[in-house]
From TrEMBL, chain A:
Protein family membership: Belongs to the ABC transporter superfamily.
Highest taxon listed in the record's lineage: Bacteria
Residue ranges of domain ABC transporter in the record: 6-227
Coiled-coil regions listed in the entry: none
UniProt xrefs under PANTHER family: CELL DIVISION ATP-BINDING PROTEIN FTSE (PTHR42798:SF6), LIPOPROTEIN-RELEASING SYSTEM ATP-BINDING PROTEIN LOLD (PTHR42798)
SUPFAM superfamilies the UniProt entry points to: P-loop containing nucleoside triphosphate hydrolases
Highest classification ranks of the organism: Bacteria, Bacillati, Bacillota, Bacilli, Bacillales
Protein's UniProt name: Putative ABC transport system ATP-binding protein
Automatic annotation (TrEMBL), chain B:
Residue ranges of domain ABC3 transporter permease C-terminal in the record: 235-345
Keywords assigned: Cell membrane, Membrane, Transmembrane, Transmembrane helix, Transport
Top-rank lineage group of the source organism: Bacteria
Protein role: Part of the ABC transporter complex hrt involved in hemin import. Responsible for the translocation of the substrate across the membrane.
Membrane-crossing residue ranges in chain numbering: 15-36, 233-255, 275-302, 314-339
Lipid bilayer topology: Multi-pass membrane protein
Pfam families: FtsX (PF02687)
Family affiliation: Belongs to the ABC-4 integral membrane protein family. HrtB subfamily.
Gene Ontology, cellular component aspect: plasma membrane
Protein source organism: Evansella caseinilytica
Protein name: Putative hemin transport system permease protein HrtB
Subunit structure: The complex is composed of two ATP-binding proteins (HrtA), two transmembrane proteins (HrtB) and a solute-binding protein.
UniProt entry tagged with the keyword Transmembrane helix: yes
Subcellular location, record wording: Cell membrane
Length: 227, 354
């Protein structure tokens, strides 16, 4: 019962640089279904992060169209993009990027405060997520007391907190050793499958690719797909 | 609300320090405001409480009632031109002896007790009831041991006077005011002829050529030294306001700059500028309110300790007004931080922009 969650059609992105323009992405089309975990790999400067930013409603493409769950967000202005991010997208950043003065529980409750969801429901959801990720004993700790892996797990829980349509991970293993990194990716994969979400992970680490359903290679802004 | 309170709770030292600065500055603001108000009051309360709408003085006095002299002829000229009832007014500075034989300076307000309206009395008779050598003295003479019906003697003319009543808020340049009838002769203790300073009248303003007509406020401002004192104190208060607004603005601005990355993350996970701005405003309001209430308490405490003669006077209205203005200034200052927040791009959270 998988359906198409994300669709990019002929997406290009150009940045003006003085008189010349630099083309970062050229005619990228892709489609991701629910329950699918897709990896994007490529050398640095190839446009991976830009692509992720466009999918995550942080940037708008210069050309082409972006559809999330059938909703065309291509022409949205920043206010509507913000609401897309808070309702449809879950982010996992390179370093966990937690808010230093919030406890683990409050990191998750912050999301429900932003989206103004019911407090009690959100608290139950937060507890369940933390339990699933094996960090419920860390609930009342501040980020500076957590190990790198624990932080990244909190970040994963945070990404799922708003019940997103798509989950985007920007090199989630960059700050972890390979063993912990693999565990984190396994967890993302497990959460994506069990909740039937669509997910994209940008990574350098080729050893993680076997955990993903598909791998997209991007080089000089062009995309190649290998099974 | 969520974000603002959690952060303040977590960075206690930082926010305690800024609160302490605010409390100190606000204490000073309240204190100087109270002092300015108290000084103004001690200087001029008797003129502010004169039972009149207009005060006619000669032209040379430049509005200072004490520097104005009117002859009997001039008095007549003025009274002829006024349709309404008027009363001559004389202001003389003299001294009395207190119970220990120490000299106490006083200001005599000589009026026509049959024409002059009654004033606010806390004890004894009012002006219209005065007979013979009875006078009304401002209550602060009680500090020198005087009570109702005591006899008090003027040092220059040796005139004995009976204290028939105590008035309230009647001081002139810090001196207690003694209201007396012209018949008592206090207007001519420095000469043989009675001297008049002004004519008081109520009702429509009448322009009389050759004389100045002042409102009570104008007369207050023309008290020698009044404007200068109030001006300097006002300047201090204004500067304190500016300093405190700057301190709070800079504090929040620097904290905001430190947190740009965090705000980027917040924006990436779906918080808009409004959400973050709300959190900054809540923090500003919280800290300012804490500062205001604690310094308010401190001011209340200090007023209990201050000696009674200290010209310090602060009313709840004045405090609330000052507090409100302070809060508004701080909120205006925090707009700078909000502007900075509005400029943050959620892309910063991605770590790098290719």
């Amino acid at each position: 019962m998988s359906k198409e969650m994300l669709r990019l059609e002929n997406v290009s992105k150009e940045f003006g640089d003085g008189d010349s323009t630099i083309t970062i992405l050229k005619n990228i089309s892709l489609s991701i279904n629910t329950g699918e975990f897709v990896a994007i790999v490529g050398p640095s400067g190839s446009g991976k992060s830009t692509l992720l930013s466009i999918v995550g409603a942080l940037l708008t493409p210069s050309n082409g169209s972006v559809m999330i769950d059938g909703e065309n967000i291509t022409a949205y202005k920043s206010r509507r993009l913000t609401s897309v991010r808070s309702n449809k997208v879950g982010f996992i950043f390179q370093s966990a990027n937690l808010i230093p003065y919030l406890t683990v529980k409050d990191q998750l409750m912050l999301i429900s405060d932003i989206t103004q969801n019911n407090k009690r429901e959100s608290l139950n959801k937060a507890k369940k997520l933390l339990n699933d990720l094996g960090i419920s004993h860390r609930m009342k700790n501040y980020p500076n007391k957590l190990s790198g892996g624990e932080k990244q797990r909190v970040a994963i829980a945070r990404a799922f907190m708003n019940d997103p349509d798509i989950v985007l991970a920007d090199e989630p293993t960059a700050s972890l050793d390979s063993e912990r990194g693999r565990k984190v990716v396994e967890m993302i994969s497990y959460e994506v499958k069990s909740r039937n979400k669509a997910a994209i992970m940008v990574t350098h680490d080729e050893r993680m690719l076997d955990l993903c359903d598909r791998t997209l290679y991007i080089e000089d802004g062009k995309m190649l797909e290998r099974a | 609300m969520f974000l603002a309170l959690k952060e303040v709770g977590q960075s206690k030292i930082r926010y305690t320090l800024i609160s302490l600065i605010m409390i100190a500055i606000l204490f000073l603001v309240f204190f100087i405001t109270g002092l300015a108000n108290g000084l103004s009051f001690a200087d001029s309360s008797s003129l502010q409480n004169l039972k009149t709408d207009y005060i006619v003085t000669n032209e040379e006095a430049d509005g200072a009632v004490i520097n104005s002299t009117l002859s009997e002829d001039q008095l007549k000229t003025i009274e002829e031109q006024l349709n309404q009832q008027s009363t001559p007014f004389s202001l003389t500075i003299s001294a009395v002896e207190d119970k220990q034989g120490k000299e106490v300076n006083v200001a005599y307000f000589s009026v026509d007790t049959e024409k002059y309206s009654d004033i606010e009395i806390i004890e004894g008779k009012n002006i219209s009831e005065l007979t013979g050598n009875e006078v009304i003295i401002n209550e602060n003479i009680k500090n020198h041991g005087y009570e109702l019906n005591d006899i008090i003697v003027d040092k220059i003319s040796d005139t004995p006077m009976k204290i028939a009543g105590f008035s309230k808020n009647q001081t002139y340049t810090f001196l207690p005011v003694i209201y007396a009838d012209f018949d008592l002769g206090m207007s001519n203790i420095y000469g043989d002829e009675p001297s008049y300073n002004a004519v008081l009248y109520t009702g429509e303003k009448v322009d009389i050529s050759g004389f100045d007509t002042l409102t009570k406020n104008e007369a207050v401002k023309s008290i020698p030294g009044y404007t200068e004192t109030q001006g300097s104190l006002m300047m201090m208060v204004v500067f304190l306001f500016i300093i405190s607004a700057f301190v709070s603005t800079v504090f929040f601005f620097i904290i905001t700059i430190q947190k740009l990355n965090q705000f980027g993350i917040l924006k990436a996970v779906g918080a808009d500028t409004k959400y973050i701005a709300k959190s900054i405003f809540i923090q500003v309001i919280l800290l300012t309110t804490i500062g205001l209430s604690l310094s308010g308490l401190a001011i209340y405490g200090i007023t209990q300790l201050l000696p009674g003669e200290m010209p310090f006077k602060i009313s709840p209205t004045l405090m609330l007004g000052t507090a409100g203005l302070f809060l508004v200034l701080n909120l205006l200052g925090s707009l700078l931080s909000v502007y900075k927040v509005a400029k943050i791009d959620a892309l910063e959270a991605i770590g790098r922009v290719e």
